């Protein structure tokens, strides 16, 4: 790490799909314990950057240094299935739950990388382990406010509730860095406010957060630092109040009619 | 006069779960009507019941005064009633153009279809740029544009929109509400479900507030915007 305060440093990350450069030489750093936002127009490359971090796509070039529990690791050469174990978990913009499983079982899937003997052995009948898993999964559900719904099939939850279930499943992986892809999509202002509280509680529990979000009230309220992508390139970075006054950001992303939401202390 | 769409005491749900517990609402021809409420209140279920994707257990869904009880979802689309589902649901393996053409599947007026395709591409230039690309390779926001464009290709008389602003950048959210207003001015009646209640009520004629499967409140949109209860619960946290 260039700076010991960083948990992640991306250097010159490029992701090329055929002739399209979805991410073009992005360098950024995330402070450990911070809440950092990644914003930008639709199609700017935000989700592709998340996919590069979690190795759902292989970056064409660049470096991704991450501070795992056991020390510094390079993500670009790590097998994709080791990413969660290294301490990075995520949610998805187009929700990806196991719709045939119950709410509780979706969270248990998140726990499997951390169990002794593995998830499948636990399912096969190790009762003590099974009870421990259930207890742990219920705690995560309780943390996001879904404990009452544990027995329901996950696709019976509303869209906003499914987003919270994805967060619970991601937390069950025990991440050091949590990536949230549009967590407030499909939530009304009151629910978004509850989400702000939830994200702050996650940070207080010691998890660093990087989020993609279009709800600018949410971004302004909780982020310590903001990066702005457009056409795969970083066009601005800084504290939220500064970024929302940036002429390029207003032109590409916020729109000329944008009025900054009233400021509020954290 | 009969409303273009009327729900009378509709009950509906999934398996043992009753989600709609007697929903009644009216959408007059030419209007924008918005349905707001918390997550899980039953807004999407209301739209799916209107589209025939789930069946009302009791009560009536009337379209142009005629019951939709016997109509299959594809017949309902052919009647000019078209839904844009929440969360895109585009055909990922088909191209952008093929997705748009499928929207016009029930139509036989080829010249009209070509004209509408041109209009959709004017509304969303990004879709023209990506016409030959598989829909699954679009970004989330681009898929949202495609889902709306696909519904417009059916040239609906009544358009049901479930969270059209979902996943769109602020500049596009402003644009999408302008597009909805424009569609309405060209004669399309719109039933709009939105979490962005403030924006929705600003372009709507009437609004309904849903709570736990029932209509808790209905009024002119302007009155709902000024209603202190609605302001506190749904319009923001400043």
Given the structure, what is the number of helices of chain A?
Answer: 10
Q: What is the CATH topology assignment of the largest domain in chain A?
A: Rossmann fold
CATH architecture of the largest domain in chain A: 3-Layer(aba) Sandwich
Average pLDDT taken over every residue of chain A: 89
Most strands sheet of chain A? 6 strands, mixed
Name of the CATH homologous superfamily of the largest domain in chain B: P-loop containing nucleotide triphosphate hydrolases
- What is the CATH domain class of the largest domain in chain B? Alpha Beta
| Helix/sheet category of chain B | alpha/beta
Helix content of chain B: 25-40%
Number of helices of chain B: 10
Whole-Å distance between the termini of chain B?
Answer: 41 Å
Please give the CATH architecture of the largest domain in chain B.
3-Layer(aba) Sandwich
- How many domain regions of chain A? 2
Explain the overall architecture.
The complex is a heterodimer of chains A (266) and B (238). Chain A has 266 residues and is α/β, with parallel strands linked by helices. Chain A is built from 10 helices and 10 strands. Chain A folds into 2 domains: 1-87 and 175-266, Rossmann fold (3-Layer(aba) Sandwich); 96-174, no CATH class. In chain A, the strands form 2 sheets. In chain A, strands 6-7-8-3-9-10 form a 6-stranded mixed sheet, sandwiched between helices. In chain A, strand 7 (177-181), helix 7 (189-204) and strand 8 form a beta-alpha-beta unit. Chain A is globular. The mean pLDDT of chain A is 89. Chain B has 10 helices and 10 strands. Chain B starts with a strand and ends with a helix. The mean pLDDT of chain B is 90. Chains A and B meet through helix 6, helix 7 and helix 10 of A and helix 6 and helix 7 of B.
């Amino acid at each position: 790490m260039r700076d010991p305060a960083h948990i992640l440093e991306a250097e010159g990350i490029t992701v090329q799909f055929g002739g399209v450069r979805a991410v073009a030489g992005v360098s950024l750093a995330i402070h450990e314990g911070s809440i950092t936002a990644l914003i930008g127009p639709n199609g700017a490359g935000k989700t592709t950057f998340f996919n590069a971090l979690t190795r759902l796509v292989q970056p064409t070039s660049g470096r991704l240094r991450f501070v795992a529990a056991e020390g510094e690791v390079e993500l670009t050469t790590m097998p994709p299935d080791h990413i969660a174990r290294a301490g990075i978990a995520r949610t998805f913009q187009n929700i990806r739950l196991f719709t045939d499983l119950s709410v509780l079982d979706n969270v248990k899937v998140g726990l499997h990388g951390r169990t002794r003997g593995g998830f499948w052995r636990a399912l096969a009948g190790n009762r003590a382990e099974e009870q421990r898993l259930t207890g742990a999964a219920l705690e995560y559900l309780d943390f996001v406010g879904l404990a009452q719904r544990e027995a329901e099939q996950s696709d019976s939850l509303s869209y906003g509730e499914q987003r919270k279930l994805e967060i619970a499943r991601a937390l069950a992986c025990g991440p050091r860095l949590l990536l949230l892809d549009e967590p407030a999509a499909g939530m009304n202002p009151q629910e978004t406010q509850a989400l702000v509280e939830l994200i702050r509680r996650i940070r207080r529990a010691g998890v660093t957060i990087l989020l993609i979000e279009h709800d600018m009230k949410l971004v302004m309220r909780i982020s310590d630092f903001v990066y702005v992508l457009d056409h795969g390139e970083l066009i601005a970075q800084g504290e939220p109040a500064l970024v929302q006054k940036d002429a390029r950001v207003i032109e590409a992303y916020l729109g000329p009619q944008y009025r900054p939401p009233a400021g509020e202390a954290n | 006069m009969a409303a273009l769409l009327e729900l009378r005491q509709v009950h509906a749900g999934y398996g043992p779960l009753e989600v709609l517990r007697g929903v009644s609402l009216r959408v007059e021809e030419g209007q924008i009507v918005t349905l707001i409420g918390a997550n899980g209140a039953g807004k999407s279920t209301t739209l799916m019941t209107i589209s025939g994707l789930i069946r009302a257990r009791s009560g009536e869904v009337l379209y142009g005064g005629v019951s939709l009880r016997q109509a299959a979802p594809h017949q309902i689309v052919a009647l000019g009633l078209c839904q844009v589902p929440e969360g895109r649901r585009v055909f990922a393996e088909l191209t952008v153009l093929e997705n748009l053409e499928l929207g016009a599947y029930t139509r036989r007026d080829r010249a009209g279809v070509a004209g509408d395709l041109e209009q959709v591409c004017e509304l969303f230039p990004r879709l023209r740029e990506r016409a030959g690309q598989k829909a699954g390779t679009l970004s989330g926001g681009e898929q949202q544009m495609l889902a709306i464009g696909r519904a417009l290709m059916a040239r609906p008389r009544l358009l049901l929109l479930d969270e059209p602003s979902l996943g769109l950048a602020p500049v596009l959210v402003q644009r999408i509400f302008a597009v909805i207003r424009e569609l309405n001015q060209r004669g399309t009646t719109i039933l709009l479900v939105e979490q962005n209640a403030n924006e929705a009520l600003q372009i709507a004629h009437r609004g309904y507030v849903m709570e736990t499967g029932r209509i808790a409140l209905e009024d002119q949109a302007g009155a709902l915007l000024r209603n202190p209860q609605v302001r506190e619960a749904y319009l923001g946290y400043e």
